[in-house]
Write a structure and sequence with these properties.
The chain is α/β, with parallel strands linked by helices. Helices cover 18% and strands 13% of the residues.
């Protein structure tokens, strides 16, 4: 049976540390593996210290966050704005004609205000509150496909602006 006093680490697992700077007779004597003259031979120097040269962490510019080049931008239109329009069918073209959105923009209907008459809304996105309010008033909402081609919009900026 194995006893506690029989346990030992495998051979070679525990080694004595190398005692340097104990005279010229032994291994690691005199300069103790530090080379000859210089700052690192005489005292401890931080790893990041570069001898007075402008340090790396100062040379590299600070990164001011991340800007997603593929962000999908929507133009918000609220329920009170749709109610003031006086239209029964609201499309991006109708909103563009009234000057409420810009050309080629994607429209998102938001839930500020209230709507009391049934309307048909065609937009690219809608919040849950806006959808519930439109359907509660007897209207309907149709989600249009995005204005960009492919799974995501074209990248804005270049390799240097995405910092």
């Amino acid at each position: 049976m194995l006893r506690l006093h029989d346990l030992a680490p495998p051979p070679g697992a525990k080694r004595k540390r190398k005692r340097v700077a104990r005279g010229t007779g032994g291994k690691g004597g005199k300069t103790a593996g530090r080379g000859t003259k210089g700052t690192r031979a005489r005292g401890t120097v931080p790893v990041w210290y570069e001898g007075g040269q402008l340090p790396l962490q100062v040379r590299i510019p600070k990164r001011k966050g991340f800007k997603n080049p593929f962000r999908v931008e929507y133009q918000p239109v609220n329920l009170d704005t749709l109610d003031e329009c006086g239209l029964d069918e609201i499309t991006p073209e109708a909103l563009l004609g009234r000057g409420l959105v810009s050309r080629g923009s994607m429209i998102k209907v938001l839930g500020r205000g209230e709507i009391i008459r049934p309307i048909t809304v065609k937009a690219h996105a809608a919040s849950e509150g806006a959808r519930a309010a439109i359907e509660a008033a007897g209207g309907s909402i149709e989600i249009l496909p995005p204005t960009f081609k492919g799974p995501r919009p074209a990248a804005a900026g270049n390799q240097h602006t995405n910092r």
